[in-house]
């Protein structure tokens, strides 16, 4: 069987990148996707645009399953295939559409009456099934099982002549979460849903403009961060913008909604060195750790210092905040590296049976026994989804003979599925739901001496600088900011 070693965590659906006006567009897109690799590891692709010998625009693409370095492992791809000064790219983790089909690897490309069009999408459309059925009944033929293809069909079927107006009209029809980058024959277009569920930013590299999911994609290129794409905004970059320096901006018409940023972007998804939703991720993650320590400290069991460790890498910054605050509370403590994580595992083939999870955890992590033995250990993590991997990780730490293990989680118990771009298992598989959020029962299953989560209110307090009312936390509360089809399952789209 194939065991996905990252499946225990909530998985984000995609990273997107676009650049306009650079002679090295495809190479810079490659590096941008490399910086966004954490947002999706299943597959990736790049599309570029050039002019052929007849003076007509032509789109070139290369895509495949695997990591960016695996799919783009031949420099000839960039030198002779992906040519042109405009490019968009996509890292994929599937939330809708079969993860086993190459047809579902983005960016998607179509040629229609207004020319060529490519799209890369981060998010999840909550009314895609309904629109898809409508379009199929009217004669549309779908090539993929992804919700993103709905957007292309809506644009192509528009009776309007202006491409930006076509895009604007299409986006009025879709609901849910979308941060989009589209490439036409002569434009780079970016758009974000009215709630701003997923991040999207604008940068500049010399004379070229960049759009990316996170600002860490700008840093790898030494590009300048300009601003974020606003919720409900459509941004257009073309030659006129390159000359004037004035970015074209349009607004999705209709009711303006309250911002509902995904709080999991701060808790887990985004890199700590990124700037999203108006703030640095590192700062927010440290605050989550500080509040976790204030509300759920662990005290010394004797003269030895309390040892604080993280589950690397996503919890590293949170553990820093936890240890600093614990120290302020007068607790003798030390932040240590107690778990070593392998970064070279990818997907691993192992034998079926009970040993699966144990081998999976040991392939990914190993303990530093000298740090843990005989000590009071606080294990800081950002979330628990199914609980199976957490249980095996605790078992692994037990083998190092600590005095006690105290698990601290910098989010609330996950009790509901997400419909906006996080790939959670079914509600019945969620650890907290199975145990009805009973801390004692969950503690006993995991085999820890104590277990504590942040409450939803405490979690929101930690990110309050970005506005407590500006976040979606439906996976913790079950209160969805939009109408959703509660019967929806990812498998509906899979073939």
What does this structure look like?
The protein is α+β, with helices and mostly antiparallel strands. Helix 14 links the parallel strand 24 and strand 25. Strands 5-4-6-3-12-11-13 form a 7-stranded antiparallel sheet. A 6-stranded antiparallel sheet has the order 7-8-9-10-14-15. It has a 5-stranded parallel sheet with strand order 20-19-24-25-27, sandwiched between helices. Helices cover 29% and strands 27% of the residues. It is elongated. The protein starts with a strand and ends in an 18-residue tail after the last helix. The model is unreliable at 1-7 and 347-354 (pLDDT under 50). The protein folds into 2 domains: 2-257, 4-Layer Sandwich (Glutamine Phosphoribosylpyrophosphate, subunit 1, domain 1); 282-465, 3-Layer(aba) Sandwich (Rossmann fold), CATH 3.40.50.2020.
Brief descriptors of the model:
Rossmann fold, disordered N terminus, Glutamine Phosphoribosylpyrophosphate, subunit 1, domain 1, six-stranded antiparallel sheet
Task: Please state the second-level CATH architecture of the largest domain.
Answer: 4-Layer Sandwich
Cα(first) to Cα(last) distance is 20 Å
Main sheet summary: 7 strands, antiparallel
The CATH homologous superfamily of the largest domain is called: Aminohydrolase, N-terminal nucleophile (Ntn) domain
Structural class determined from secondary elements? alpha+beta
How many domains, as an integer? Answer: 2
Number of beta-strand segments: 28
Question: How does the overall form come out from the CA principal axes?
Answer: elongated
How many helices in DSSP terms? 18
Strand content: 25-35%
Enter the CATH topology name of the largest domain.
Glutamine Phosphoribosylpyrophosphate, subunit 1, domain 1
């Amino acid at each position: 069987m194939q065991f996905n070693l990252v499946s225990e965590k909530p998985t984000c659906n995609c990273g997107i990148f676009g650049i306009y006006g650079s002679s090295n567009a495809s190479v810079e897109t490659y590096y941008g996707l490399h910086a966004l690799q954490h947002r999706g590891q299943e597959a990736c692709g790049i599309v570029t645009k050039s002019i052929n010998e007849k003076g007509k625009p032509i789109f070139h693409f290369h895509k495949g399953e695997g990591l960016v370095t695996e799919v783009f492992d031949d420099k000839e791809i960039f030198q002779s295939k992906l040519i042109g000064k405009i490019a968009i790219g996509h890292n994929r983790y599937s939330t809708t559409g079969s993860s086993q089909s190459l047809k579902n690897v983005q960016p998607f490309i179509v040629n229609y009456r207004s020319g060529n069009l490519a799209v890369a999408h981060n998010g999840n459309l909550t009314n895609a099934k309904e629109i898809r059925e409508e379009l199929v009944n009217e004669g549309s033929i779908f090539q993929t099982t992804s919700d993103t293809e709905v957007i292309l069909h809506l644009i192509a079927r528009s009776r309007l002549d202006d491409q930006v107006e076509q895009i604007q009209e299409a986006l009025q029809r879709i609901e849910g979460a979308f941060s989009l980058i589209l490439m036409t024959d002569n434009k780079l277009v970016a758009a974000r849903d009215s709630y701003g569920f997923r991040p999207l930013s604008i940068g500049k590299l010399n004379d070229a403009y960049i759009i990316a999911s996170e600002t860490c994609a700008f840093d790898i290129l030494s590009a300048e961060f300009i601003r974020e794409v606003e919720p409900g905004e459509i941004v257009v970059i073309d030659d006129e913008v390159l000359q004037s320096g004035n970015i074209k901006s349009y607004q999705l018409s209709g009711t303006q909604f309250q911002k509902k940023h995904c709080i999991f972007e701060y808790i887990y998804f985004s890199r700590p060195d990124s700037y999203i939703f108006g703030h640095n991720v590192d700062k927010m993650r440290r605050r989550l750790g500080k509040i976790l320590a204030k509300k759920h400290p662990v005290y010394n069991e004797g003269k030895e210092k309390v040892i604080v460790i993280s589950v690397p890498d996503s919890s590293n910054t949170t553990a820093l905040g936890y240890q600093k605050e614990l120290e302020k509370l007068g607790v003798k403590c030390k932040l240590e590296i107690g778990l070593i994580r392998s970064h070279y595992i990818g997907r691993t083939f192992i034998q079926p049976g009970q040993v699966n999870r144990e081998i999976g955890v040991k392939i990914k992590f190993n303990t530093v026994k000298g740090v843990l033995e005989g000590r009071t250990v606080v294990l800081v993590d950002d979330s628990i989804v199914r609980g199976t991997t957490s249980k095996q990780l605790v078992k692994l730490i037990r083998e190092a003979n600590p005095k006690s293990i105290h698990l601290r989680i910098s989010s609330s118990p996950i009790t509901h599925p997400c419909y906006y771009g996080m790939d959670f298992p079914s509600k019945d598989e969620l650890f907290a739901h199975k145990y009805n959020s009973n801390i004692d029962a969950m503690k006993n299953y995991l085999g820890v001496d104590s277990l504590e989560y942040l409450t939803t209110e405490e979690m929101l307090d930690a990110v309050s600088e970005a506005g407590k009312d500006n976040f979606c936390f439906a996976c913790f509360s079950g209160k969805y900011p939009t109408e959703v089809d509660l019967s929806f399952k990812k498998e509906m789209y899979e073939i």
